Amino acid sequence: MGLFSSLFKKKEVVSNLTDLSGLGLDLHSHLIPGIDDGAKTLEDSIMLIKGMRQLGFKKIITSPHIMSGGYNNTPEIILSGRDKVREAIKEQGIDVEFDAWAEYYLDETIMPKIEKHSLMTMGDKYVLVELSYLMKSFSTTSYFYSLITNGYKVVLAHPERYPYYHSDDLDEYKMIKDQGVFLQLNIASLTGTYGQGARNAAEKLIDNNMIDFVATDLHNTRHLSYIKDSVKLPYMEKIINYDKLMNKVFL
Ligand SMILES: [Fe+2]
User: Fold this and answer.
1) In a domain, 182, yes or no
2) What number of CA atoms fall less than 13 Å from residue 18's CA on the CB side?
3) Ligand 1: centre distance to CA 223 (Å)
4) What's 193's domain CATH number?
5) Distance from Cα 208 to the centre of ligand 1, integer Å
6) Structural domain of residue 221, as residue ranges?
7) Residue 8 domain flag
Protein backbone atom coordinates (compact mmCIF):
# COMPACT_ATOMS: atom_id res chain seq x y z
CA MET A 1 0.00 0.00 0.00
CA GLY A 2 1.45 3.39 -0.99
CA LEU A 3 1.81 6.34 1.34
CA PHE A 4 -1.12 8.20 -0.17
CA SER A 5 -3.51 5.26 -0.01
CA SER A 6 -2.47 4.37 3.53
CA LEU A 7 -3.09 7.95 4.64
CA PHE A 8 -6.44 7.91 2.88
CA LYS A 9 -7.37 4.60 4.51
CA LYS A 10 -6.37 5.93 7.92
CA LYS A 11 -8.60 8.94 7.44
CA GLU A 12 -11.52 6.64 6.71
CA VAL A 13 -11.30 4.64 9.94
CA VAL A 14 -10.05 7.05 12.60
CA SER A 15 -11.85 10.09 14.01
CA ASN A 16 -10.32 13.56 14.37
CA LEU A 17 -11.49 13.92 17.95
CA THR A 18 -9.00 14.35 20.78
CA ASP A 19 -11.58 14.20 23.57
CA LEU A 20 -15.35 14.35 24.21
CA SER A 21 -15.56 18.03 25.14
CA GLY A 22 -17.77 18.63 22.10
CA LEU A 23 -20.64 16.94 23.96
CA GLY A 24 -20.71 19.89 26.36
CA LEU A 25 -21.74 17.79 29.35
CA ASP A 26 -22.62 14.32 30.49
CA LEU A 27 -26.17 13.56 31.63
CA HIS A 28 -26.10 9.88 32.60
CA SER A 29 -23.73 8.18 35.06
CA HIS A 30 -23.63 6.40 38.42
CA LEU A 31 -21.17 8.40 40.50
CA ILE A 32 -22.81 8.80 43.91
CA PRO A 33 -21.08 6.24 46.12
CA GLY A 34 -22.84 3.24 47.58
CA ILE A 35 -26.40 3.85 46.42
CA ASP A 36 -26.55 1.78 43.22
CA ASP A 37 -24.29 -0.42 41.04
CA GLY A 38 -21.92 2.45 40.18
CA ALA A 39 -19.17 4.01 42.33
CA LYS A 40 -18.75 2.10 45.58
CA THR A 41 -16.76 4.65 47.60
CA LEU A 42 -16.16 8.39 47.51
CA GLU A 43 -12.62 7.61 46.27
CA ASP A 44 -14.16 5.69 43.33
CA SER A 45 -16.39 8.67 42.58
CA ILE A 46 -13.48 11.09 42.57
CA MET A 47 -11.31 8.82 40.40
CA LEU A 48 -14.11 8.49 37.84
CA ILE A 49 -14.87 12.22 37.90
CA LYS A 50 -11.18 12.98 37.30
CA GLY A 51 -11.25 10.56 34.35
CA MET A 52 -14.28 12.32 32.92
CA ARG A 53 -12.66 15.71 33.38
CA GLN A 54 -9.66 14.43 31.39
CA LEU A 55 -12.08 13.38 28.65
CA GLY A 56 -13.25 16.98 28.44
CA PHE A 57 -16.43 16.99 30.54
CA LYS A 58 -16.81 20.21 32.55
CA LYS A 59 -20.33 19.43 33.71
CA ILE A 60 -21.56 16.07 34.99
CA ILE A 61 -25.21 15.37 35.79
CA THR A 62 -25.18 12.00 37.49
CA SER A 63 -28.22 9.70 37.50
CA PRO A 64 -28.45 7.02 40.20
CA HIS A 65 -30.90 4.19 39.56
CA ILE A 66 -34.33 4.38 41.13
CA MET A 67 -35.74 0.89 40.77
CA SER A 68 -38.37 -0.58 43.09
CA GLY A 69 -36.99 -3.62 44.89
CA GLY A 70 -33.52 -3.02 43.42
CA TYR A 71 -32.40 0.48 44.30
CA ASN A 72 -34.94 2.17 46.53
CA ASN A 73 -33.39 5.61 46.17
CA THR A 74 -35.30 8.82 46.85
CA PRO A 75 -34.61 12.41 45.78
CA GLU A 76 -33.43 13.08 49.38
CA ILE A 77 -30.88 10.23 49.31
CA ILE A 78 -29.62 11.31 45.89
CA LEU A 79 -29.32 15.00 46.73
CA SER A 80 -27.51 14.34 49.98
CA GLY A 81 -25.08 12.05 48.09
CA ARG A 82 -24.64 14.73 45.45
CA ASP A 83 -23.69 17.25 48.13
CA LYS A 84 -21.05 14.89 49.59
CA VAL A 85 -19.51 14.37 46.16
CA ARG A 86 -19.61 18.13 45.52
CA GLU A 87 -17.73 18.69 48.76
CA ALA A 88 -15.04 16.18 47.74
CA ILE A 89 -14.76 17.75 44.27
CA LYS A 90 -14.16 21.10 45.94
CA GLU A 91 -11.57 19.70 48.35
CA GLN A 92 -9.72 18.07 45.44
CA GLY A 93 -9.84 21.27 43.41
CA ILE A 94 -11.39 19.57 40.36
CA ASP A 95 -12.78 22.06 37.88
CA VAL A 96 -16.13 20.40 37.20
CA GLU A 97 -19.77 21.25 37.83
CA PHE A 98 -21.67 18.36 39.45
CA ASP A 99 -25.41 17.83 39.69
CA ALA A 100 -27.83 14.93 39.99
CA TRP A 101 -31.15 13.62 38.77
CA ALA A 102 -32.12 9.96 38.47
CA GLU A 103 -32.53 7.06 36.07
CA TYR A 104 -36.04 5.73 36.68
CA TYR A 105 -36.84 2.12 35.87
CA LEU A 106 -40.27 2.20 34.23
CA ASP A 107 -42.80 0.01 35.97
CA GLU A 108 -46.11 0.58 37.77
CA THR A 109 -44.32 2.31 40.69
CA ILE A 110 -43.75 5.32 38.42
CA MET A 111 -47.49 6.15 38.32
CA PRO A 112 -47.95 7.68 41.82
CA LYS A 113 -44.73 9.66 41.31
CA ILE A 114 -46.08 11.06 38.03
CA GLU A 115 -49.36 11.98 39.71
CA LYS A 116 -47.56 13.70 42.58
CA HIS A 117 -45.17 15.40 40.17
CA SER A 118 -42.35 14.19 42.40
CA LEU A 119 -39.92 12.88 39.76
CA MET A 120 -36.37 14.25 39.69
CA THR A 121 -35.94 16.30 36.55
CA MET A 122 -33.31 18.37 34.79
CA GLY A 123 -33.74 21.45 32.61
CA ASP A 124 -37.29 22.00 31.39
CA LYS A 125 -38.86 18.93 33.13
CA TYR A 126 -36.74 16.32 31.36
CA VAL A 127 -36.81 12.91 33.06
CA LEU A 128 -34.47 9.97 32.37
CA VAL A 129 -36.03 6.49 32.18
CA GLU A 130 -34.86 2.95 31.47
CA LEU A 131 -36.61 -0.30 30.54
CA SER A 132 -36.01 -4.00 31.06
CA TYR A 133 -33.17 -5.46 28.96
CA LEU A 134 -34.86 -8.84 28.86
CA MET A 135 -38.48 -8.43 28.02
CA LYS A 136 -40.66 -5.95 26.21
CA SER A 137 -43.35 -4.51 28.45
CA PHE A 138 -46.60 -3.66 26.77
CA SER A 139 -47.18 -0.98 29.41
CA THR A 140 -44.18 1.09 28.30
CA THR A 141 -46.21 3.13 25.82
CA SER A 142 -48.79 4.01 28.47
CA TYR A 143 -46.07 5.08 30.94
CA PHE A 144 -44.58 7.32 28.25
CA TYR A 145 -48.04 8.72 27.59
CA SER A 146 -48.68 9.45 31.28
CA LEU A 147 -45.32 11.15 31.67
CA ILE A 148 -45.77 13.31 28.58
CA THR A 149 -49.36 14.31 29.34
CA ASN A 150 -48.20 15.36 32.82
CA GLY A 151 -45.71 17.76 31.33
CA TYR A 152 -42.56 15.66 31.50
CA LYS A 153 -40.10 15.40 28.62
CA VAL A 154 -39.00 11.78 28.47
CA VAL A 155 -35.41 10.77 27.71
CA LEU A 156 -35.09 7.02 27.11
CA ALA A 157 -31.69 5.75 28.29
CA HIS A 158 -29.67 3.54 25.91
CA PRO A 159 -32.40 2.54 23.43
CA GLU A 160 -29.77 0.53 21.52
CA ARG A 161 -29.44 -1.86 24.48
CA TYR A 162 -32.98 -3.28 24.33
CA PRO A 163 -32.71 -6.32 22.01
CA TYR A 164 -36.47 -6.54 21.47
CA TYR A 165 -36.36 -3.15 19.73
CA HIS A 166 -33.70 -4.20 17.22
CA SER A 167 -34.89 -4.45 13.64
CA ASP A 168 -33.54 -3.42 10.26
CA ASP A 169 -36.28 -0.87 9.68
CA LEU A 170 -35.96 0.78 13.16
CA ASP A 171 -39.77 0.71 13.39
CA GLU A 172 -39.92 0.37 17.18
CA TYR A 173 -37.66 3.40 17.59
CA LYS A 174 -39.71 5.41 15.09
CA MET A 175 -42.87 4.69 17.09
CA ILE A 176 -41.20 5.74 20.34
CA LYS A 177 -39.91 8.96 18.81
CA ASP A 178 -43.30 9.65 17.24
CA GLN A 179 -44.74 9.53 20.75
CA GLY A 180 -42.40 12.41 21.64
CA VAL A 181 -39.72 10.47 23.52
CA PHE A 182 -36.05 11.50 23.18
CA LEU A 183 -33.37 8.85 22.68
CA GLN A 184 -30.10 8.84 24.67
CA LEU A 185 -27.23 6.76 23.27
CA ASN A 186 -24.55 5.21 25.51
CA ILE A 187 -21.08 6.05 24.23
CA ALA A 188 -19.70 2.61 25.06
CA SER A 189 -22.26 0.97 22.76
CA LEU A 190 -20.12 2.28 19.89
CA THR A 191 -17.10 0.33 21.15
CA GLY A 192 -19.09 -2.92 21.34
CA THR A 193 -19.12 -3.01 25.16
CA TYR A 194 -22.73 -4.22 25.24
CA GLY A 195 -22.41 -6.62 22.30
CA GLN A 196 -22.66 -6.47 18.54
CA GLY A 197 -26.46 -6.08 18.51
CA ALA A 198 -26.29 -2.90 20.58
CA ARG A 199 -23.42 -1.61 18.47
CA ASN A 200 -25.30 -2.20 15.21
CA ALA A 201 -28.43 -0.52 16.58
CA ALA A 202 -26.37 2.43 17.84
CA GLU A 203 -24.76 2.94 14.42
CA LYS A 204 -28.09 2.66 12.61
CA LEU A 205 -29.73 5.16 14.96
CA ILE A 206 -26.88 7.60 14.33
CA ASP A 207 -27.04 7.06 10.56
CA ASN A 208 -30.75 7.87 10.65
CA ASN A 209 -30.36 11.01 12.82
CA MET A 210 -32.52 9.50 15.54
CA ILE A 211 -30.27 10.13 18.55
CA ASP A 212 -31.10 13.16 20.69
CA PHE A 213 -28.65 12.83 23.61
CA VAL A 214 -25.29 11.08 24.09
CA ALA A 215 -23.97 10.06 27.52
CA THR A 216 -21.40 7.89 29.29
CA ASP A 217 -23.63 5.83 31.66
CA LEU A 218 -20.34 5.50 33.55
CA HIS A 219 -20.30 2.95 36.40
CA ASN A 220 -16.63 1.97 36.96
CA THR A 221 -13.03 2.22 35.72
CA ARG A 222 -13.30 -0.66 33.24
CA HIS A 223 -16.18 1.19 31.71
CA LEU A 224 -14.18 4.44 31.66
CA SER A 225 -11.53 2.80 29.48
CA TYR A 226 -14.17 1.80 26.90
CA ILE A 227 -15.41 5.37 26.86
CA LYS A 228 -11.84 6.60 26.28
CA ASP A 229 -11.60 4.15 23.35
CA SER A 230 -14.64 5.76 21.74
CA VAL A 231 -12.71 8.98 21.02
CA LYS A 232 -11.05 7.37 17.99
CA LEU A 233 -14.25 6.02 16.44
CA PRO A 234 -15.71 7.69 13.34
CA TYR A 235 -19.23 7.13 14.72
CA MET A 236 -18.27 9.06 17.87
CA GLU A 237 -17.08 11.92 15.70
CA LYS A 238 -20.26 11.75 13.62
CA ILE A 239 -22.61 11.97 16.63
CA ILE A 240 -20.56 14.63 18.44
CA ASN A 241 -20.82 16.81 15.32
CA TYR A 242 -24.54 16.15 14.80
CA ASP A 243 -26.10 19.60 14.78
CA LYS A 244 -29.38 18.54 16.43
CA LEU A 245 -27.72 16.85 19.41
CA MET A 246 -29.53 18.14 22.51
CA ASN A 247 -26.98 17.65 25.34
CA LYS A 248 -26.49 21.38 25.59
CA VAL A 249 -30.09 21.99 26.77
CA PHE A 250 -28.71 21.12 30.22
CA LEU A 251 -25.80 23.56 30.16
FE1 LIG B 1 -27.53 4.02 33.77
Assistant:
1) yes
2) 1
3) 12
4) 3.20.20.140
5) 24
6) 18-250
7) no
For residues 211 and 183, the answer to whether their CB atoms sit within 8 Å is yes
- ∠ CA 157-47-187, rounded to 5°: 30
Q: What is the DSSP letter of 142?
A: H
**Nearest-angstrom CA–CA distance, 226 and 220:** 10
Q: How many domains does the chain have?
A: 1
Distance 104 CA to ligand 1 centre (A): 9
Per-residue pLDDT of the chain (251 residues; tens, 9 = 90+): 455 555 555 445 689 999 999 999 999 999 999 999 999 999 999 999 999 999 999 999 999 999 999 999 999 999 999 999 999 999 999 999 999 999 999 999 999 999 999 999 999 999 999 999 999 999 999 999 999 999 999 999 999 999 999 999 999 999 999 999 999 999 999 999 999 999 999 999 999 999 999 999 999 999 999 999 999 999 999 999 999 999 999 99
Does any domain span residue 220?
yes
Flag whether 12 is in a domain: no
